[in-house]
Amino acid sequence: GLRFYAGAPMKEPSSGATIGTLCIVDTVARTVFTEEQHRLLSGFAAMALQQIESCLTPAADFVPPRSAIA
Asked: What pTM, to 2 d.p., does this model score?
């Protein structure tokens, strides 16, 4: 079963609302999760949030296909 869990919140920058958590899990128990590992996990959470936001934010130069314009 699950023996290790670590998570980093993904917070929406403008409101500070937590929209999710980036988690890592393992079946091996771990007694040490270093500050460096925590920093890396937080960095990965920030990158994941950027990807999510890029999908939700319309591109300034986006032109819808003609079939979508009615």
From this structure: 0.75
